[in-house]
Amino acid sequence: MKRCLFMLILTLLTTISWAQSTPTLANQHAKPWTYWWWMGNAVNEKDITNLLEQFSKAGLGGVHIIPIYGVKGYERQFLPFLGDRWLAVFAHTVREGRRLGMGVDLTMGTGWPFGGPGVSSAMAAKEWKVENGTLVSALTNQQVKRPAPGGQGLVIDYFSRSAIETYVKRFDSTLARIPEKPRAVYNDSYEVFGANWTDNFLTEFRNRRGYDLNSQLSAFLDTTQTQNSILVHQDYHQTLAELLHDGFTKPWVTWAHRHNYKVRNQAHGSPGNLIDLYTEADIPETESFGSSRFSIPGLRVDEQYEVDRFGTPNPLAMKFASSAANLAGKPLVSSETGTWLANHFQVSLSQVKPQVDELFTAGVNHVFYHGIPYSPPAEAWPGWLFYASTNYGPTSHVWPHLPLLNRYIERCQTRLQRSKPDNDVLIYFPIHDLWATRAKSAGGIHQLEVHHVERWLLPQPFGQVCDLLLKRGYSFDYVSDDLLKGLTVTKQGVRSASGAVYKLIVVPRTVYLPEQSLRQLERLARSGARIVFDGQLPEQAPGFQNHAKRTAELKQIGATLQQLNSVTITADLFSTLGQMGVRVESWAAEGLSFIRKRHADTTQYFVANLSNRFRQNWITLAASGWVSRYDPLANQTDRLPVRKNKQGGVEVFLHLEPGQTCFLNVSPGTAPVTTPASQSEADKLADQPIALPNPWQVQFLQGRPALTASVTVPGPVSWVTLTDSAGFFSGTVRYSTTFDLPGGRARARTYRLNLGDVREVADVRLNGQPIGTAWSIPFQLSIPADRLKPTGNQLTIDVTNLSANYMHLYDRQHPGWKKFYDINIVDIRYKPFDASRWDAVPSGLLGPVTLTPVNAQGGR
């Protein structure tokens, strides 16, 4: 008993430690931030203060300003980007953000990519062409996409150091002059289409690769994948990657740091090695665009979203940013989050949460919503809108309940930001094998984008191995050729420059590997690092110059490696990992996603059930000790039941419904085994759901258009079926009923209210007292038994729906709200937006609604 009491106190102290590590004042980094599109830069101090105060009250930690195209009829209010008036309102924004405990980031330009007025032909993006038998430069003529008024112009050459150095001078003479600084400057994903050259490319190529590219022009132009063509294209891509890194990323970061700005960079989409490019940033940023195809029951995906066109989010792509951060010791990993989850006016909070949870399991800990358009508070509904859904702002139907999602994210990110990576495996990214394949992007280059991983990541042995590692429950990071140089070996394993330690390095089945990189692996192996080659040693050195000689050197290094005890070549990677003591979370194979981290002496798991395969089971964690569970949705900590398994190990009982998440914290010590008692017949009956058979009253409350109908129905039902006009209603409707607890059953300590299908958010009261708000799948709330009466319980559920049904009416009556320049408003297929033809979407409480007793064993 004393031991149990001691461990209980230890658990409480651990929980208190976590709480104390969270500042009592708002932690701006732990809270979600948002993209904030300044429409036409038609902004003013009064409205900025009003909006920032609303953002702060809702629980946002900061804003990322992106000047963008404007609104028709407001031309006189447009402010020239970086002009004196613009700088004044920007300075006001930073000051007000500081007052409210909010941060401010800034895109270095308008729209995207970098470019605009002042970008001359010499600075602009280039492509190669052949003239008179030689390679020469030609302009791509790509213009800045979605520019703010006055921001039109050519996109810069991202392979040219002189172009970026000239480009930032505009900010030296404007932004740098004011004392109010953004926290970070930002570069969007690489969307410089067709750009594959720079004016001095041939000189750089000769200096870096040792030969004249024109001397191998026939191999460069060959698309039949001959050996020489492959080698020359590897050299070509290697040069592009180095120029992007050395010519754009490093000079830009150097400039930003000189002015005390941090750098947020979206490296994806570029033709470079994403790991190296992300590593240069203070805050590497990935992207979650569209809806993942989770098998969570009840999770809706917009049927009009075109997967073939836009792709779906993938955690393996996200891990390029988090791996770079883990290896380089960058505490924050951000994400552009929730872009085009569904059509305008049709996105629910229950769709957002699983996408955020997937990001967390991939190592992201600094969420940016995409996003909120600047809309003057006086502007009539629906306000100013950005063409790309999703809108998280004050004019959105999600706004009244957005603080619930914000608090959930803040609780999660507080823990994720204050813990360190705890991964066992470093897996080498063989980019030269990718460069040996035919490119599928514009300009004949490999653009490593997050949207279509099926084009470049998943087909490669690297992607296939990583996919298996993820699904089988291994924790890993990626490592590049360049980052191999910074690894050292300690008694604990392979150590990165940031102090992250890994048990071993895995080299997936690889054909081409630079001899310098194999030398680095030999260096590490001689120091005791365990190196595992999946299936084979690499066969060739990449690149054309002295290929045969360098390949011979590569094979000689490989022969040396085979003689070292710390090197393994295996035909069965996963058996080898098991023999080497690599930790595996076997329960991940049941459909659970997770990330494992460490906080002081505690191992921390974030676990997300993003499938329909797991609900409850006994699981064995790779970490051992005293296990507590923290529910970030309910903000509750509990101790889990523990038992010994047949092998003598310890198992914990985890109940996690599809759509739910939790933190499992494993503290030092031996958890007391709590063998569950056998259930009595009364207990078994108590586990059965209790139906609510009485009629329901349905009453329309506040919304658009105003309705006052009140009807009685046999059970929960979509309100759009109740009256002719109900299909246009957007707002809140009250569902109420009464029920008795059935007699003859053992009383449970807690009951679970299962609301079934909710469209979209349900505020619940029982016997006049608030129980909570259900806004995510599964729509469940916990009710303490003492809140229930034996008879005459009154249940009231106020449900708020989407704004889609009202927009169906509004777009017919007021089509003039679509008054934006550039692309105006489009639907999810990028066609002109037209809600007038929409069908009414189900709204309200669809049920079934049941009450489930939770037995004392914790099994339900």
From TrEMBL:
Protein known as: Glycoside hydrolase
UniProt cross-references to NCBIfam families, sorted A to Z: rhamnoside_JR
Species name: Spirosoma agri
Keywords: Hydrolase, Signal
Signal sequence coordinates: 1-19
InterPro entries hit by this protein: Galactose-bd-like_sf, Ulvan_degrading_GH
Source lineage: Bacteria, Pseudomonadati, Bacteroidota, Cytophagia, Cytophagales
Molecular-function GO terms, alphabetical: hydrolase activity
Pfam families, alphabetized: Glyco_hydro_106
